[in-house]
Amino acid sequence: MKFVVTGSTGFIGREVVSRLLKQGHYVYCVCRPNSPKVAVLPKDANLSIVEATMADYSTLADKIPNADVLINMAWDGITREGRDFTDVQRDNITYALQTMDAAKAMGCKVFVETGSQAEYGIVNDVINEDTPCNPFSDYGKAKLALKEVASKHAEEIGIKYLHLRIFSVYGENDHPWAMISSCTSKMLNNEDVELSACQQQWNFLYVKDCAKQITLLSEWAYCNMETNHEVYNLASEDTRLLKSYIEEMYSLTGSSSQLLYGKVVPKNLVSLNPDITKLRNAIGFVADYSFAQGYQNVINRYKNG
């Protein structure tokens, strides 16, 4: 199969590309012009680089003659500072719809959009795909708004739409300000770690498992075209108190840091307790890595540079 991946050099995107290539697919990686991040992508005869800004995604069909599935992972304002820029999020929705039109023009049967747990907002119970969404951030509101308009647009133009709500993903190449990255750096340097009370439920998914879930769902959707669009939660089976994760990290790093619980008081206390029954039923897979296995890879990356 031929895949198009936008956001291909991102934290999750590069793992999706690697997974697709290992499965024998041909991959068109859409990257910003002259992006130095292209260097993170594998060197492979089945990989082609396509340069385009998000504003130019509407012309992708002029550069890619034909493809089967487009996985759209590009999104401006993914840093903490950019998540509440309303105009940026509005543009993201426009670009995504234009990308869907381009996917249809190049012959794609499936359009895959990466959503977010932020669409649900604050939910203290188990979260399944039918849980009412009440996002509080502009980022979550935009992802939810995209899901609503994109599913309708997909039906109008005749393309299958998958909306994948990704929960909390960790791995070696995550942003330095992400919770696991920042805590790991401090723990390995035996620095004080300021934390919330960490009494909410949480769920971590290793990035390679997330990439496998995305690619398997994409392949499944291509081979099962009877439905118009679907929403899936992407997470692991390991839901527990966030404090339990922190204590496991502390043990695995061999740290002597002081863990200062309650020092940070979040404005919005999010709890993550996802139901992944629908995911498991579709692809028969959840994860290859335990949290300890994935986190050891994070530790090794920090230690080895």
Shape: globular
- CATH domain topology of the largest domain: Rossmann fold
Low-pLDDT ranges: none
Q: Tell me about the biggest sheet?
A: 7 strands, parallel
Mean pLDDT: 94
Broad structural category: alpha/beta
Q: Would you report the number of β strands?
A: 12
CATH architecture of the largest domain: 3-Layer(aba) Sandwich
CATH superfamily of the largest domain: NAD(P)-binding Rossmann-like Domain
Please bin the fraction of helical residues.
Answer: 25-40%
Order of helices and strands: EHEEHEHEHEEHEEHEEHEHH
Q: Please report the number of helical segments.
A: 9
Q: How many domains would you count in the coordinates?
A: 2
Describe it.
With 305 residues, the protein is of the alpha/beta class. 37% of the residues lie in helices and 18% in strands. It has 9 helices and 12 strands. The protein has helices spanning 13-22, 60-63, 86-105, 138-157, 179-188, 207-223, 242-253, 277-283, 291-304; strands spanning 2-6, 26-31, 47-51, 69-72, 110-116, 160-166, 168-170, 193-194, 201-206, 229-234, 239-241, 259-260. Strands 3-2-1-4-5-6-10 form a 7-stranded parallel β-sheet, sandwiched between helices. A 3-stranded mixed β-sheet has the order 7-9-11. Helix 1 links the parallel strand 1 and strand 2. The protein is globular, with a radius of gyration of 19 Å.
